[in-house]
Amino acid sequence: MPNIKSAEKRVRQMKVRRLRNKSVKTRFRNVTKELLTAIETKESPEKIKELLSLSYSVLDRAAKKGVIHKKQASRRKARLTTRVKKYLESLS
């Protein structure tokens, strides 16, 4: 337990921020997992594109809030896009 008043405040702030960051991380992990599951179960291309767009949005929001780095969000989006393109090409 911290002895200094400012250190006590930091502990309180970290608890709040940890919970906030956790919910954002959980959100983008779930959306990503949903997209990958849709690809595996061979959902319709419209549904896949909709989920990809949602994934972009959620990842960008996480990067904007500082939960993940901007470049990490970019890398994740690129990898998802590659998976989606590969799936859509296999349909044609």
UniProtKB/TrEMBL annotation:
GO CC terms, sorted: cytosol; small ribosomal subunit
Name recorded for this polypeptide: Small ribosomal subunit protein bS20
Stated family: Belongs to the bacterial ribosomal protein bS20 family.
Biological process per Gene Ontology, one example term: translation
Pfam families tied to this protein: Ribosomal_S20p
Function: Binds directly to 16S ribosomal RNA.
GO molecular function: small ribosomal subunit rRNA binding; structural constituent of ribosome
Recorded name of the encoding gene: rpsT
Keyword Membrane: no
Alphabetized UniProt keyword annotations: Ribonucleoprotein, Ribosomal protein, RNA-binding, rRNA-binding
Superkingdom, taxonomy of origin: Bacteria
